[in-house]
Amino acid sequence: MLEIKQLHKSYPIGDSHLHVLKGINLLVKEGEMVAIMGSSGSGKSTLLNIIGMLDHADSGDYILDGLPIKNLTEKKAAEYRNKFLGFIFQSFNLINYKNAMENVALPLYYQGMKRKERQELAMFHLEKVGLADWAHHLPKELSGGQNQRVAIARALAANPKLLLADEPTGALDMSTSYEIMEFIQQLNDEGKTILMVTHEEDIANMCKRIIRLRDGVIMEDTTIKQVRAKQHV
Amino acid sequence: MFDLDLWREIFQSINKNRARGLLSGFTVAFAIMLFTILFGIANGLENTFDELFVKTADNAIYIYSGRTSKPYKGLQVGRKVSLYNEDFEHIKNEYRNKIEYITPKLNRNFQVSYINKKGSYNVIGVHPDAQHIEKVKIKDGRFINLNDIKNHLKVIIIGRLIEEDLFGKISAIGQYINLEGINYKVVGVFTDNGGDSQERLAYLPTTTVQQIYIGKDAVGEINLTYNRKMSSDEALTFGTDLTKNLRKRKNVAPTDQRAIRVNNMALQTKGIETMTGGLGILIFIIGLGTLIAGIVGISNIMIFIVKERTKEIGIRKALGATPKSIVSIILIESVLITALAGYLGLLIGVGVLKWVGPSLKEYYITNPEVHPNIILTATIVLIAAGTLAGFVPAQKASRIKPIIALRNG
Q1: Does A136 touch chain B (CB under 8 A)?
Q2: Phi-psi label, residue A66: left if phi above 0, alpha if psi -120 to 50, beta otherwise
Q3: B230 neighbors B98 (Cβ within 8 angstroms)
Q4: What ipTM goes with this model?
Q5: Domain A30-57+70-231 class?
Q6: CA distance B12 to chain A (A)
Q7: In degrees rounded to 5, what are phi and psi of residue B158?
Q8: In this complex, which of B4, B315, B322 lies closest to A95 when CB atoms are compared?
Q9: Which candidate from B316, B318, B398 shows the least CB-CB separation from A54?
């Protein structure tokens, strides 16, 4: 599903460069649920952004589902993001003047789907995250947990191959975090491949594999026994 | 291609971000309104100018004669100098190419009566050309013609107010009026924009006046208009030339201002030309100034709007928006708002001009209005400026890495 070889990335800081990723090799198979951990500055978010085509690597190979991701034009990158990837952010990143249903329908709009179809599909996904009754509410009228569920519905709407989550529970309290994790586990059970950046051990333990980064290199890559979030709720 | 979904996106964005729309709309509307009003007032000033100087032709030259004030070639001071038919013909022939219209003018005050009504009016003996020099408009009948001049006919053309004074509501045409004992047939009635006094005049053929009242062929003063093809400088030269020529012809000292006096309107025209030229520059500066202020305003707002939408742009990009779709959504929104607001400002500006316009007459502002084309151009310039001002930051925003846009949220 996902193959990364000798990935390097550095950022210019004044006159010198900050070498953030120093040769990452990573193989993720379909249906996996991977947690990327590390202290801040370890390069975990940069790695996720490169995987999400939100940022470019300096060198190395990145192959997504057999497609080499390299030297993409802005237009091509936009198309791939829309088709292959679903994003879940720590701060939800919903458009504040659109209601839940419209937010979920937005990736479908960029696929060129007809209005009626995309509204139906958006409603289907909202129902899946249990927010059908809240479809016409604005983000500011929803709780943090509800907003994150809208964001998950949005990430799922375009039926992506890969779900990328950047600290998905970072802005939520303990019980809401577990609720969200339960959802994500459910999605994984249904076969979605999930990559998640987190710095919380308990959240990481709910994945199936943990990759620990330090100073831009993978220190540890272990397959673990998944802790089901349901036990905590 | 009409993309309903794109327009839906844009209208939602405008509708849900009213403060933003109002802000940019207000700037544009205000700029266009100011532009319209200022331009209208400046135009009104120019109209007043034009109106003030239409009483008589602005290319007229008046030639007067009087008594000499300087001795010359053995002739003494105080000699009376008169202009005669031969002088008139001399000028007419000598300067044929430089003269547009020319007429002698014999001025006399007469007791004029019709049946039992009478009044004292200024009556002028003229040639047919006087109609154009005096800017007389014939209401009924005709003006003096060459036949009247040649045959010394006793015909008269009277002003609208004389007709009103003497005839009341009935037409004066074909009636006979009495000028101190002699009957004249009214063959024409005229109007004149120069005011009431200009409509209480009457015109006779010069030759009739000469024959009946003077007994010799003196012509009084001579009025002419110069060829409009001449610039005001050429007209001034023509005036001095004419003066020199006449003084020599009448044996008058070349510097004698009293014996032969030539009043050249070209001098005034030149002054007016300079003034209207100055006014034109003023209008241009006002228009340009308001437009620049508007452009700066809308540019600032566009930059602010793009900045404010950076996060939204990041989200949209993460979800698969292409740079082109980002640019078009921002630009169409701004063009839409600018065009609507520009139109609104135009309506308000024109409305204000219509409303206060009539009461500005006493401040020398007549009919303040602006040609629609000028406002249209101004609006288009503003829209173009807004588009350009929005395009640069929108383009930049569309290229921004979504991750940076999202981080800044």
Answers
A1: no
A2: left
A3: yes
A4: 0.89
A5: alpha beta
A6: 8
A7: -115, 155
A8: B315
A9: B318
